[in-house]
Amino acid sequence: MSLEGSVERVTMELDEPFTISRGTQTDAENLIVRVTDEAGMTGVGGAAPARHYGETADTVADLLPELLSVVEDVGDPHAFTEIEARMKTVVRDNPAARCAVSIAVHDLAAKRLGVPLYRLWGLDPSATPNTSFTIGIDTTDRIREKAADAAAAGYPILKVKLGGDRDREIVEAVREAAPDATIRVDANEAWTPREAVAKSEWLAELGVEFIEQPVPADDPAGLKFAYERSALPIAADESCVTAADIPAIADRCDIANLKLMKTGGLLEAKRAVATARSHGLEVMLGCMIESNASIAAGAHLGPLLDYADLDGSLLLAEDPYEGVDVTGGPLRLNDADRAGTGARPLDG
To answer: What domains are defined for the chain?
Structure first.
């Protein structure tokens, strides 16, 4: 069997500027990977590099040809365990680059068998949780409008970005605009441990479900302080990059928030889920701002999750790929009529 890989670099405008405590983003640069077999069948994957984790579009673009040479050398998309292991010998970091190749190979393997990816793994598609819809930091009036629009569009779960001196005002505006919504908040490392504890009290009064990454990842003692005193459950995101980080956070959070772009591949993501479960943690899968070329693959892990935050493609003005439909919240996994991850280019 022979395989051939290719890479496309795409810049996608956001529907509107997206702000978190670390800054504002107006576009997202992804790299699309394709792996094609001798019959012309193609698997698709995507990389959404994050500078926060040491990757850029340039570093990913530089590495992908070398990673795709591993795929071509192995020559079998069904040998994804060998492929992911050998990619780690090429580069141990740069997880988004490795992840794009992992997704493309899995997509191709499932397509060759004529099954959706979740079926390749033996998972039950009816067990998927709803995804949240994220509301970035903005003016209070605009946040109120965003929350009302999301509620009207049927999203039952809203994730609200915090991390400034208007945090309470923002959450109160969201609660006013979407009184029946489940609200989760994400501080993206912006609070001190004592701030996190104090804010958890009034967040609980406003019916918030949990707090994501309240304190800096480089302050594990602070995370434990917040976890032990918080009025709400704590999810670890920036503190939990790979499966190897999970034992160290197991006694200082309730939820491990994984991302494909942090784990470096679909097999590693499944290992991270299992590791979190073995340490008594609940599991959420999040995302960067990504095309459906990668979001769709994450959705197929839905049956393994307690929580999903897979709305990255919904923040784009236009996604060049269609995939798993998450509008309104449910993860509508593709059936046998659309094998693989379900991701397809809009232009056919």
So the answer is: 3-114 (3.30.390.10), 119-345 (3.20.20.120)
